[in-house]
Amino acid sequence: MININSKDKSIILLIALCGVLLWLIVSVFFVIFDKVSFKNSEINKINIIEKNRWLNVVEPLSPKNLSGKITILHFWSSSCVSCIEAIDKLKELDAKYPNTFAIIGVHKPLFENEENYLAVKKAVIRFDINYPVINDLDHSLSNKFAVTKTPTFIIFSLSGKVYAKLEGVDKIEDAINHASKLYYKNKFSINRNKIPVVLEKDINISNILSAPSKIIYVSKFSHKNREIPVIIVANSGQNSILITNINGEIIAKIGSGANGLNDGNFDNAQFLSPQSIAYSNKKIFVADTGNNALRVIDFENNSVKTLIGSGMQGEIIASKKINLNDVKIDLFAPTDVEFFPDKSTLIISNSGTNQILAYNLKDNQLSILAGNGEIGEQDGVYPENSLAQTSDMAVYEGKLYLLDALTSNLRVIDKDGSLQTLYKSKDEKNSRIRLQNPRGLVVDDTGAYISDSLNNAIKKFDFNTKQLSTIVGGHRGEEVGVNTSFDEPNGIFSIIDKFYIADSNNNRIMEVNRASGSSDLLDIMPQQKLSKEVFLEYLPNLQKSADIEVKALSDIAFNIKIKDGWKINPLGPSFMNLLELKDKNSASLISSFDWNEIIANKINLPKLNDESQYLLQGKIYFCRNIANSLCYIKSYEQKIIAKQNSDVSEISIEIAK
I need a labelling partner for 412 at 20 to 30 A (CA). Which of 96, 217, 252, 348 fits? Predict the structure, then answer.
């Protein structure tokens, strides 16, 4: 045992006090240094952005919000396929390390019509972005940070110093790794205050459709032992595939609605922003864009299965042919699927690698049809030819027609694999006609019809004159009838004298007369089937009302108040369920009220037991009281407490957008 005298103890105590004092001085120094450094940080360049150019926030973020956090600026564009991949990766990073990062999306428009604030807002909702976004419509921030590519990531340390700048699609994983390393280096010093976010999607009324992308027509679809014509919709914003009859009534829905890559039955399967579908032999093949995967929906056994992909981002495919029985690969942002030259081969637009792949369904072989992986406009045969993020394809007369979204070109591949450009956008002298990020294509003997997304128009390319012309639309809007307008139209097909168009940002399907251009709304609506689920987990556009006490053992009226100019949709499966709560996790269904009772507004709750608790849940489908009006969903939930001494005998809800 060591004996320490009082003098030694005093010296040890003095050394300890000096150590603590030194630590305090150093800590204060670094706090002051960080504050001074942050004050002079390049991140403060975002302060020049006006309030009306921010999204997902009430007020622009201030230095106080960002100081002490790892800040990531993500420069992106809604028309950039690889940028969308980066959004999902950033959301995963933010969820893994909560209250650590200040992620700010900076929308850098690649096309003129992407500058519109409303267009950016709808893109934020469509891609489910849950962090603040700046609309850099004039490229002012992009220029200040010398950003020329999308996606670009600029990562700032806690003091506001630039830690890393990474440009290009091949740097997504590097950006995530750099941010993670910075977290582990500073995890005990990070400012854990929450970033004040108010999501645009939470203040937006829900529709039945959400950012529908591609749509197809199937003349003979097996349903309940008979073959009927149907429309199949990639309902991208709700991660599901919808099948409707020709009148718009939904007869099947595949996908739970949650983000994910999960196989299984129709209710449990998960997709992530599926963009396109193709149908053959009781199977729907799905380009599951966000999951970088090819999926198949099999109606023989009512299941969903992944054919290609694991959810990871794939690389440029260099091998001319790959046996998928021996080698597993990942796709990168597949945006379309088509059968060509026959039903045994599925063509995949692998947009993220700028390639078109051919998947032989019989022998499970994958080969390259076109695209050497470089972004370009080179014609010819593989490997000389190049593509630029092919968005849609169409088969006609033994040829595969395609749209390159990034260059806005119309091209065609013949049976021999030779690629030819039919229309080159940069050569178009008339700026009003020039394509901007086209996304939908249908071809017949009269020409190629194109959803010119960012010009909000449907255009025709005449094979004889080689000229492009606008046949309907041309300005952003939601008009129906003789002055039809669109908001980023996407998928398109034609039946007899009509075009059917997925008007993506307006969350609707339009019927357009080919001769007159006059339009009608295809009213997509679920079947009128009473829901008897206990504890509905997903309630779109939920109006969660405050708890209410009502008189026990008495008649209680439920009154639906409808504002002038609105009506409850008589075709919608509106309902209300009354549940008696047993405990936090269990309840029993007491009463159900269907659409007939809701339309008649004659709902009387049964007498409720004294001191018991109940939950009223349901959905109401409503629309404006005019023809061709888009319908919305209002979900309702309210806890009810029955008390003998209460005087309340009525519960009410107000319906309007």
Answer: 217
DSSP string across 268-321: T-BBSSEEEEEEETTEEEEEEGGGTEEEEEETTTTEEEEEE--SSPP-----SE
Ordered DSSP codes for 482-529: TT--BSSEEEEEEETTEEEEEEGGGTEEEEEETTT--EEEE--EE---
Distance CA 186, CA 320 (A): 46
Q: Are 393 and 399 a contacting pair, CB within 8 Å?
A: no
DSSP per-residue codes, 407-469: TTEEEEE-TT--EEEEE-GGG-S-TTTS--S--EEEEETTEEEEEEGGGTEEEEE-TTT--EE
Predicted confidence (pLDDT) per residue in 573-632, tens digit: 888 889 888 876 778 888 888 888 888 888 889 999 999 999 998 888 888 888 777 788
- The answer to whether the beta carbons of residues 304 and 296 sit under 8 Å apart is yes
Q: Check pLDDT > 80 for residue 28.
A: no
Q: Is the preceding peptide bond at 132 cis, omega within 30 degrees of 0?
A: no
CA distance 353 to 454: 23
- Tens of pLDDT, residue by residue over 54-76, are 999 989 998 888 989 999 999 99
Instruction: Find the helix or strand (DSSP H, E) in which 393 lies.
Output: strand 390-396
CA distance 349 to 366: 13
Contacts of 282 (CB under 8 A, 6+ apart): 222, 298, 299, 300
Please give the torsion angle defined by the CA atoms of residues 159, 160, 161 and 164, in that order, rounded to the nearest 10 degrees. 120
Distance CA 529, CA 380 (A): 54
Beta bridge partners of 457: 452, 473
CB 573 within 8 A of CB 528: yes
How many of the other CB atoms lie within 10 Å of CB of 402?
Answer: 25
- The two tokens of residue 493 are 């097909």
| DSSP per-residue string spanning 96-140 | HSTTTEEEEEEE--SSGGG--HHHHHHHHHHTT--S-EEE-TT-H
pLDDT at 528: 56
Q: How far is CA 590 from the centre of its chain?
A: 37
Cis-peptide into 341, omega within 30 deg: yes
Residues 6 or more apart whose Cβ sits within 8 Å of residue 12:
4
3-class DSSP assignment, residue 561? strand
- Which bin fits 292, alpha (ψ -120 to 50), beta or left (φ > 0)? left
Alpha carbon distance 630, 280 (integer Å): 31
CB 504 within 8 A of CB 126: yes
Residue 126 phi, psi dihedral angles, 5° rounding:
-60, -40
Residue 46, classed as helix, strand or coil, is helix
- What is the rounded CA–CA span in Å between residue 348 and residue 353? 11
